[in-house]
Each structure stands twice: as structure tokens, then as C-alpha cells.
Amino acid sequence: MKYGMIGRFIKIAFAKTAFDYIEKEIPEVDMTSYKSRVLKEYRAIVERTPGIGKIKDNMFVMTMYAVAFLIALYKEADGMINEEKLKGLIYALSYCSLMVKAKQ
């Protein structure tokens, strides 16, 4: 996939909510370093993932970008995100303000 407009949109849509959640749930994380690593890993995941078409032709494109962001968050937490915290993170991202507006 290409890290283009959709890649940047997902980053903008989810970053604040995700990092706020991580900071609250895992206070021992060095957030400055963590944010940098997550955004770098997210871009790397997106760029090495094979594309599945354009967003207008395939509704799963947006989902793939969102999951790439979630994987980067999990991977860069170095084992500090357990199953319960991961479920909470997914819930927080599913109900962030942009997602609520998109669902309406």
C-alpha cells in the first residue's frame, strides 16, 4: 500500500486518542520515544503491505490502514499491552470523535 492521503488521515484520526489511552493505561511508557517509534513502524507496515485496490473499489482498504496503526501501537509497546488493554484501546479508537462522526 502507499502511505498517502489515507495513511496520513488514519494517523491524524487515531493518534491523539491512542496515545492518550496508552499514556493513561501504561504510565511507565516514555511517550516521546513511543510516539516516534509507533509512527515510524506504522509507515513501514503500510509501505510493505501489498495493496488491495483503491478505497472507492474496496471498502476494506481503510480497515487495513487502521489495523496497521493498531499493530504498530501494539508492537512498539514491547509487551506492555495485554489482552485487556488491547480491547480497551480498540474500544477507544472505535469510539473516538472522528469514528463516531463517520458512523453517523
Order of helices and strands: HHHHH
The best one-word shape is globular
Provide the gyration radius in Å: 14 Å
Strand content: under 5%
The total strand number stands at: 0
Counted up, domains total 1
Mean pLDDT: 89
* Separation, N- and C-terminal Cα atoms: 28 Å
* Helix fraction by DSSP (H/I, runs of at least 4): over 70%
Determine the number of helices (DSSP H or I, runs of at least 4 residues). Answer: 5
Class per helix and strand makeup: mainly alpha
By oligomeric state, this entry counts as single chain
Low-confidence stretches: none
Please give the largest β-sheet: none
How would you characterize the overall build of this protein?
There is one protein chain. It is globular and about 40 Å long. 70% of the residues lie in helices and 0% in strands. It has one domain (5-103). The mean pLDDT is 89. It has 5 helices and no strands. The protein has helices spanning 5-25, 31-48, 61-75, 83-94, 97-103. α1 (5-25) runs antiparallel to α2 and α2 (31-48) packs across α3 (61-75). It has 104 residues and is mainly α.
Task: List descriptors.
mainly alpha; 104 residues; 0% strand
Summarize the structure.
By secondary structure, this protein is an all-alpha fold. The chain has helices at residues 5-25, 31-48, 61-75, 83-94, 97-103. The chain is 70% helix and 0% strand.
Task: Describe the secondary structure blueprint for this structure.
Blueprint: H1 5-25, H2 31-48, H3 61-75, H4 83-94, H5 97-103
